[in-house]
């Protein structure tokens, strides 16, 4: 029967027509009293038919006043149309689907208990939400791995962690690290509300000094297990933060719940993570706590690896500095050196430079590259450099003779390396008019040719016959080449990392270097070296690079102030 059909029936006939309907149903008269209720309808309402007939619906079910059901009934009665709604009715603990239409017998309401359908729908929605949340948490763990393992700066690593877990796992987060001397620092900090970030920093700056022994982080550092506070009361705040200044800083943050997880690596507590929720968000869910615990374990591993890598890099840098000694500074020469490690891996490699005086006063310059880019290459480089320096000081051989002796010594002493090298000696000679002048004598063992920048900006390639690298026991000849060193000129020795690129031909790279050197005429020596590294290398260095630059100043005059003080080994004369 449709509402249109019922409108054609007298009231009593309509009641007889709906008497046998199985769907729950009731009819309300003009005074909102139950004029008719079928048994199915009374049962759904947890009443009997007798208990409802003649009763006012708003008196019998006062909680319906103001509900979607009242709005539906009054609207249908006002308009004479039809309508429906679906809503939760708390007193009966049920979801109802109600449809209403107006008839001569009164307002007819048919309805169904759809609680089970809602329950199934809610369970499905919860399952979907759980799957989506699990996916988000899995992605979070992957992001944490990637973010923290891509840096060896521990402070940066924990800051990245804090920024990733907020707001997925907490409203705000503070990450503590424990340094090697036992000092605790609250380094990583993040808040989901940008307006609260200053307040978070104020509290975090005071937290280490103000935490009582009973606070989550001190407890966790003593006993490395998670500490969970589902609710933070005023009493808990006072017990954790006894200092008034720190409590005043904490107050605007309004913590409602907290969870702290230790950062443990190789059995050592190296820090802790504090996750805090505001009062509106409430306690952390079990899923959030499980994810946070896994995230903390991964963060601890990444942080420990970063610390180990940083320590290894410090050792490498100290080793590198010990191997790359500062050059001498003869009276008429100004020397500058630069070393730039590759940006990947350990910041050490096989490139080196050296400059020392022979007993006769000549200056020996060395630039070389041991094959390899690791600790082993650096160790081998140290042996090769020592051989070159020792033999070069003891024997006043020409550069070619020095390379020959070093090659044989490396083979005889079983030095596990092969290296390219260029040895040069700056000698005091005479020019065409018989006046004192400097000249360069050099030989190369597979190493790139040097450049000579004249005072007027002309750049010369100083080429010499190229011999094989040292370390192979070459028995063939090695040859010297000689070139004058005019006053004001600049000699540049460098390793191939300065101009060699994977996406560029060697000649193209060297042309770029030559052009840059020409544009740098007139620059102070240190500025010239810095410009070479900045413009030729940029931020990413594919190979380690060594540069040795020599500026020739006039003979027989006072050393220029910009050249710095003269630095000579004790007991050696000025050339």
In short:
With 575 residues, the chain is of the alpha+beta class. 38% of the residues lie in helices and 25% in strands.
Which structural traits does this protein have?
21 strands, five-stranded antiparallel beta sheet, single chain, alpha+beta, disordered N terminus, 575 residues, six-stranded mixed beta sheet
Describe this protein's structure.
There is one protein chain. With 575 residues, the protein is α+β, with helices and mostly antiparallel strands. It contains 17 helices and 21 strands. Strands 12, 13, 14, 15, 18 and 19 form a 6-stranded mixed β-sheet that branches. α7 (115-149) packs parallel to α13 and α14 (375-394) crosses α15. Residues 3-10 and 571-575 have low confidence and may be disordered.
Q: How much strand content do the residues show?
A: 25-35%
Q: What sort of overall outline do the alpha carbons produce when their principal axes are compared?
A: elongated
Biggest pleated sheet: 6 strands, mixed
Rg (CA only): 43 Å
Structural class: alpha+beta
Layout of secondary structure:
Layout: H1 3-7, H2 11-18, E1 25-28, E2 34-37, H3 39-44, H4 49-52, H5 57-60, H6 68-79, E3 82-89, E4 94-103, E5 106-113, H7 115-149, H8 154-165, E6 172-178, E7 184-191, H9 197-210, H10 216-222, E8 227-229, H11 234-240, H12 244-250, E9 255-265, E10 268-278, H13 286-323, E11 333-340, E12 351-357, E13 363-370, H14 375-394, H15 399-412, E14 419-430, E15 436-445, E16 451-453, E17 459-461, E18 466-467, E19 481-485, E20 490-494, H16 506-519, H17 525-537, E21 545-552
Parallel strand pairs: 15-18
Antiparallel strand pairs: 1-2, 1-5, 3-4, 4-5, 6-7, 6-10, 8-9, 9-10, 11-21, 12-13, 13-14, 14-15, 15-19, 16-17, 16-20, 20-21
Helix pairs in contact: 7-8, 7-13, 8-13, 9-12, 13-14, 14-15, 16-17
């Amino acid at each position: 029967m449709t509402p249109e059909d019922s409108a054609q029936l007298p009231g009593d006939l309509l009641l007889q027509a709906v008497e046998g309907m199985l769907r729950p149903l009731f009819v309300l008269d003009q005074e909102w009293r139950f004029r008719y209720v079928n048994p199915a309808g009374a049962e759904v309402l947890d009443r009997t038919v007798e208990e409802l007939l003649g009763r006012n619906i708003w008196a019998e079910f006062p909680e319906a006043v103001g509900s979607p059901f009242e709005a539906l009934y009054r609207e249908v009665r006002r308009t004479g149309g039809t309508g429906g709604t679906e809503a939760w009715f708390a007193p009966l603990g049920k979801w109802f689907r109600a449809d209403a239409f107006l008839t001569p017998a009164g307002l007819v309401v048919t309805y169904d208990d759809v609680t089970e359908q809602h329950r199934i729908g809610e369970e499905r929605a919860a399952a979907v939400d759980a799957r989506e949340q699990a996916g988000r948490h899995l992605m979070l763990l992957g992001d944490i791995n990637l973010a923290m393992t891509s840096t060896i700066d521990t402070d940066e690593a924990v800051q990245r962690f804090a920024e990733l877990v907020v707001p997925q796992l907490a409203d705000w987060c503070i990450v503590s690290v424990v340094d090697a001397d036992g000092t605790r620092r609250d380094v990583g900090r993040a808040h989901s509300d940008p307006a609260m970030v200053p307040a978070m920093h104020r509290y975090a700056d005071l937290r280490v000094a103000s935490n009582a022994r009973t606070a989550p982080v001190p407890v966790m550092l003593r006993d490395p297990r998670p500490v969970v506070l589902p609710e933070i009361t005023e009493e808990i705040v006072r017990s954790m933060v006894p200092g008034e200044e720190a409590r005043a800083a904490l107050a605007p943050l309004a913590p409602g719940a907290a969870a702290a997880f230790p950062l443990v690596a190789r059995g050592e507590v190296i820090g802790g993570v504090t996750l805090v929720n505001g009062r509106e968000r409430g306690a952390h869910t079990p899923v959030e706590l499980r994810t946070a615990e896994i995230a903390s374990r991964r963060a601890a591993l990444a942080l420990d690896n970063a610390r180990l890598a940083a320590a290894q890099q410090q050792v490498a840098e100290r080793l590198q500095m010990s191997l790359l000694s500062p050059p001498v500074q003869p009276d008429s020469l100004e020397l500058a050196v630069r070393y730039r490690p590759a940006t990947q891996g350990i910041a050490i490699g096989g490139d080196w430079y050296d400059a020392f005086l022979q007993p006769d006063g000549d200056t020996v310059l060395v630039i070389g590259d041991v094959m390899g880019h690791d600790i082993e290459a650096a160790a081998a480089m140290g042996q090769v450099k020592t051989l070159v320096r020792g033999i070069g000081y003891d024997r006043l051989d020409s550069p070619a003779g020095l390379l020959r002796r070093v090659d044989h010594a490396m083979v005889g002493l079983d030095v596990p390396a092969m290296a390219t090298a260029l040895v040069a000696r700056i000698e005091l000679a005479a020019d065409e008019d018989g006046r004192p002048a400097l000249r360069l004598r050099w030989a190369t063992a597979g190493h790139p040719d040097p450049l000579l920048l004249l005072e007027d900006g002309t750049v010369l390639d100083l080429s010499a016959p190229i011999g094989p690298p040292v370390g192979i026991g070459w028995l063939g000849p090695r040859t010297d080449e000689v070139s004058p060193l005019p006053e004001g000129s600049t000699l540049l020795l460098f390793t191939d990392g300065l101009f060699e690129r994977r996406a560029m031909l060697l000649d193209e790279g060297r042309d770029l270097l030559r052009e840059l050197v020409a544009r740098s005429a007139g620059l102070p020596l240190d500025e010239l070296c810095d410009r070479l590294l900045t413009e030729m290398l940029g931020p990413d260095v594919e190979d380690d690079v060594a540069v040795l630059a020599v500026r020739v100043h006039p003979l027989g005059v006072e050393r220029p102030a910009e050249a710095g003080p003269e630095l000579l080994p004790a007991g050696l004369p000025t050339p």
